[in-house]
Amino acid sequence: MGDWWYRNIVEPGKLPLLLALGSFVLTFVITRVITRLIRAGKGPFRNVSTGGVHVHHVVPGVLLTVAGGFGAVASGRSGVGPMVCAVIFGMGVGLVLDEFALILHLDDVYWTEEGRKSVEVVVVTAAMVVLLLGGFLPFGVNGVDDDETQGRGGVALTVAVNFFFALLALTKGKARTAIFGIVIPFVALVGAIRLARPGSPWAKRFYRSRPRARARARLRAFHHDRRWTGLSRRVQDAIGGRPDQEPARVPERR
Description:
Radius of gyration: 22 Å
Oligomer: single chain
Helix content: over 70%
Number of helices: 11
Distance between the termini: 74 Å
Shape: flat
Mean pLDDT: 81
Structural class: mainly alpha
Number of strands: 2
Largest sheet: 2 strands, antiparallel
């Protein structure tokens, strides 16, 4: 275990990245726990306001991200400085991305359906960092033989091909498939070869003059959504909390 840790984490210089990932995920989890307690009116936590303005936690998140990023640049590559800055940076990113939907919409949509985007972005970010730890940085280790070098080259090529398939799935409107396909190659391949979702960039470009393909895409999307949307929402609710129910709109009388 110690030899694996040194060769795969310490020697390639991935320890700061691992610390940033850990602090990022932990900060997001703690933040969601606190915000859900505030929402339920439990515990000692309260929203922070100053001068009648609600200070969202994206504000200290931005400050921590800036401090961690510039601190990492200034501290060099050796010593404990980069690791401390990595932890600070991960904490800042966790706070910022937890309110990604607020930044996107420029509105307080934290507990709305639009607020689900924050959870999705956090999952994407965590998956990408895990990929960086496991595959995108297989280089930079001294003292490897030719066989190991070729093996790492094969890993890098596999990752590049898999990333291409994931990107193709994304253009077909299959964001979740692309996300999980980054880690699981078979999922990316399936998403890349199957029909695109209606309204996706791929469908708009290649199904424009193919009415049968458009009809098949709509039918498949309908059956897929009916089967998986409920499960997906339950997972998102378990991670980030259930959004507020929007009041039903009363039709205007004419």
